[in-house]
Amino acid sequence: xxxxxxxxxxxADVDMxxxxxxxxxxHWFEAARMKFLEQVVPADNDWSKLGLILARNEVDYRMPVRxxxxxxxxxxxxxxxxxxxxxxxxIHRIGGDAPGICAEGRSVMVCFDYTVQxxxxxxxxxRRQLEARI
Length: 134
Known about the structure:
alpha+beta, Thiol Ester Dehydrase, Chain A, 2 helices, 17% helix, elongated
């Protein structure tokens, strides 16, 4: 089960080639990731003690996004390990002359105990939520 969030393309996102700069896609992935994690991690979680480390980001660019495009970012869990899980992403252009997937990506998220500064197993309640969304 995936989560989608609407994205507003800002003027500052566009580079001299008149399309969205490559680094901006990671911000869009983050917006979708945060919305997705709201469904997995309890709202009262103390992120200063039990949290996540972003260990890897990948982006495959398919079509350029331009200033006036209507887009959405989509995120879903694509794999669950012992201490980490993968989130996958798509940036969709909605409508217009060329609707479709503009970018795809993946990130590896590692569970981390900030009080002892080490990786930990995925908490069981998180694991259940993640596995239900694959």
